[in-house]
Amino acid sequence: MTFDPLSASFGIAATGMKAQATRLRVVAENLANANSTAEMPGGDPYRRKTVVFASVLDKALGANAVEVKRIGRDTGAFTLRHDPSHPAANAEGYVKLPNVNALTEMMDMREAGRSYEANLNLLQQARGMVGRTIDMLRS
Length: 139
Description:
Layout: H1 5-32, E1 49-58, E2 63-73, E3 79-82, E4 94-97, H2 102-138
Antiparallel strand pairs: 1-2, 3-4
């Protein structure tokens, strides 16, 4: 099998975009559940999800690509808020709040968006190169 850099460019950009799209979905889920508490008194609320990437050899492309290795859970501590009237309050009147920090999620969203955009730019550049090559062959 021969290495085709142009095909590899398309494939690498596509896998990068797919991985970052997954990351954006996870960030959106975290933000949507930032205030989700437990359904029963003393129970655990929503736990922040994390995305772990892995570099894998794509034999069809002959190059390393990125993929989502797993979607995990952040084991960080929950915040406690004293609110005895809340349905999820424990015996002491404290409610566990999710370990989601909106600022962290917004930074992750921005980074994922920029990475997605960089991969999209690579894809557009490769497509432009193909177009210019076809134009050269026509003349």
